[in-house]
Automatic annotation (TrEMBL):
Leader peptide range in chain numbering: none
Keywords: Cytoplasm, Phosphate transport, Transport
Gene: phoU
Family the entry assigns: Belongs to the PhoU family.
Provenance organism: Corynebacterium minutissimum
UniProt-listed Pfam families: PhoU (PF01895)
Protein name according to UniProt: Phosphate transport system regulator
Length: 242
């Protein structure tokens, strides 16, 4: 029975990797469509909706099966519950990428974002795609410290979003109202994509340690301080015995 349970867990973990690849591909296509005004990648991204829904449904079925198969131990239960939340984060990330692709397709052959602020969206794309790849690595390594580093990129995305909103709401804005609305909406899609990525990273911290990110950071910092104190005391003892 345990062998069958472990196989189910492994299959669930594999489906998460598949979902990760699907979402990364979606955002790659959507960003290309947005930045280049290209129709084909936008169409490809929109067409992946069925694949995204299929992987999500398969993950949900696996979760129900795992919870019903037998009473899972604490660590296994953490894996199942964390994975359920990660699936939902990935699904929302995929849908946000498709919203970006839909916006690009609707305005083709024009580029939705005004040329003078397009560079911000190039940076958005770089940051969120790096975060997406980092999240996939986390699914494999479950390194809580790597998960914490993803929050730095999330903060960088938040900073760009706030800066763009200031630009779009100033009197000096020379674009149209339509451009301001569409640009702010696209900025929000990238910002929410990064938020869900950071949320999933937090779930992996819980999966690996049993602690939420804030408590894990507190525990890690406390252990570092204690280790530094022990090192200083050991050095003092060596000096006393010279």
């Amino acid at each position: 029975m345990r062998a069958a349970y472990r196989e189910q867990l492994d299959n669930f973990a594999h489906d998460l990797i598949i979902m990760s690849d699907t979402v990364h591909n979606l955002m790659t296509l959507a960003s290309k469509a947005l930045l280049e005004g290209a129709l084909q990648p936008a169409e490809e991204a929109v067409s992946l909706r069925e694949e995204l829904d299929e992987v999500r449904a398969r993950c949900e079925d696996r979760a129900v099966s795992l919870l019903a198969l037998e009473n899972p131990m604490a660590k296994d239960l953490r894996q199942v519950i964390s994975s359920i939340y990660i699936v939902e984060d990935y699904y929302r990330m995929g849908r946000l990428a498709q919203h970006i692709a839909t916006s690009a397709r609707r305005r083709h052959p024009e580029i939705v974002v005004p040329a003078d602020i397009l560079g911000f969206f190039e940076e958005y794309a770089r940051l969120v795609l790096d975060m997406s790849l980092g999240l996939k690595d986390l699914l494999i390594t479950r390194d809580p410290d790597l998960a914490l580093r993803l929050t730095d990129d999330d903060d960088a995305v938040d900073d760009i979003n706030q800066h763009l909103l200031r630009i779009l709401t100033q009197r000096e804005w020379k674009g149209t109202v339509r451009e301001a609305v569409e640009t702010s909406q696209l900025s929000r899609y990238y910002e929410r994509f990064a938020d869900h990525c950071a949320s999933a990273a937090g779930r992996i911290i819980y999966l690996a340690t049993g602690l939420d990110p804030e408590r894990y950071m507190h525990k890690r910092d406390q252990e570092q301080r204690e280790a530094e104190l022990e090192a200083r005391m050991a050095e003092l003892e060596r000096q006393f015995h010279r």
